[in-house]
Amino acid sequence: MNQVVSAVKKNLDLSQNRPIKEAIYEALSKTILLGEIPSGERINEKNLSENLNISRTPIRYALERLDEEDLVERKTGVGVLVKGISINDAYEIFDIRKELDVLATRKAMRLMTPEQFNQMRTLLEETDRLNAAGRVAEVMAKFTEFNNFIYDASHMLRLKMIVNQLQNYLIYFRDISINGDDRRNLAIQEHWLLYRGMLNQDDDQIKLITREHLEHSLHYILKVMKAKHIE
């Protein structure tokens, strides 16, 4: 079994009730974004199909989506090659997030009801409990829930559409970032600071904490990418 098949197989989750083509797409996307398939490596559709015991149709669907997202490229006479994600991509995505998240958080702050602030506090308390219990996967889910809570509360539908287009990148960057205990603990503290800034209607604190929070995540991610020799 070659490197590509082994890496994809490790990230392939067929336990959930969803179309196989989506599971294959997510496994390939995660494997590429985490740098587990080196840039320039060829993905052999036939080889994947045979080793994963899956028809070529869902694999072809996944590769077409990845081509549209510029994570792979098709070369005549060669096949599908991994392009992956670069350090410059990470900088660009986090620059976008800084602007969008500050905007969404300020808007949400002004629109949220006392009940919604209580819901946010409960969400943060649940995150604390899960983190103390070492349930890292559930903490990751709570981080996504926290971000989505703010996007939904902002009522900025087009902003959320833009964020959704970056979702795969954001999820895998998040997974890299908060897998480290120190970074995860600090990120939880930063979410609490953000909550208090929103509660106090403090624009300056929201801008400062949001930017610092994302800058800390970026630095951790860059360290991991460099350790994997991703340039």
TrEMBL record:
InterPro entries: GntR_C, TF_FadR/GntR_C, Tscrpt_reg_HTH_GntR, WH-like_DNA-bd_sf, WH_DNA-bd_sf. Residues 18-85 form the HTH gntR-type domain. The keyword Methyltransferase does not apply. PROSITE patterns: HTH_GNTR. One of its GO terms (molecular function) is DNA binding. It comes from the Bacteria. The keyword RNA-binding does not apply. Gene3D superfamilies: GntR ligand-binding domain-like, Winged helix-like DNA-binding domain superfamily/Winged helix DNA-binding domain. SMART domains: FCD (SM00895), HTH_GNTR (SM00345). Keywords: DNA-binding, Transcription, Transcription regulation. This is Transcriptional regulator, GntR family. It comes from Lacticaseibacillus rhamnosus. The lineage of its organism: Bacteria, Bacillati, Bacillota, Bacilli, Lactobacillales. The gene is citO.
